[in-house]
Specification:
Layout (H helix, E strand, L loop, with lengths): L15 E9 L6 E5 L3 H4 L1 E11 L3 E7 L6 E9 L2 E10 L2 E6 L4 E9 L6 E12 L2 E12 L8 E8 L5 E2 L4 E8 L3
Antiparallel strand pairs: 1-13, 2-11, 3-8, 3-12, 3-13, 4-7, 4-11, 5-6, 5-10, 8-9, 9-10
Length: about 180
């Protein structure tokens, strides 16, 4: 049996998600933009978000190409012993969670990005986390009905309850693009 380290020669490629962006905020911000994307080539994006709500209660929305029209979602949430279902057909982006000031949001979302189709997303999230309390556990199906514009950027907006809503220091964002073997 041979043991040791195998080092590939040349570029490594595989079918699957590859990290294309990662940041941890060192200062609070009202938004973060990831640009240089090509949804027609990548086809799918996976978002990993651990957001800290700074200053005031904040909802986080992800808007492809900073387009804040034509989104909807259906969700089911659990809070304490309650199960809640809800829908919106007039939202400003892919909803990524809500938290009170200095609380956390954890989101794992997969976005289907190819032009020519209604863009859909599946979101698993934990909302309004503080200490050992997770206020909501939510599963969402989301849609964005712009079928003709290539997704070239994703903008993470703090949808402010008031003018102080911001992504807080320590907010972590990672984006993975589904890459085909070349």
């Amino acid at each position: 049996m041979q043991r040791g380290t195998v080092l590939p020669k040349g570029a490594v490629s595989y079918d699957g998600f590859q990290k294309v962006y990662e940041t941890t905020l060192l200062a609070s911000a009202p938004s973060v933009t990831i640009s240089g994307l090509n949804g027609d080539v990548d086809v799918e994006y996976k978002v990993v978000l651990r957001a800290i709500s700074a200053v005031d209660a904040t909802a986080i929305v992800i808007s492809p190409n900073n387009d804040t029209t034509t989104y909807g979602f259906q969700q089911i949430s659990g809070s304490v012993a309650d199960i809640i279902a809800g829908r919106s057909t007039a939202f400003t982006g892919f909803y990524a969670g809500y938290a009170d000031a200095n609380h956390l949001i954890q989101t794992d979302m997969v976005i289907c990005a190819k032009t020519g189709f209604v863009r859909t997303a599946l979101n698993n999230m934990l909302e309004d986390i503080t200490g050992t309390t997770v206020t909501y556990v939510t599963l969402q199906g989301l849609s964005y009905d712009d079928t003709s514009t290539n997704i070239t950027s994703l903008v993470f907006n703090a949808d402010k309850t008031n003018s102080d809503g911001r992504l807080g220091i320590g907010t972590y964002i990672a984006l993975y693009a589904k890459k085909a073997r070349t």
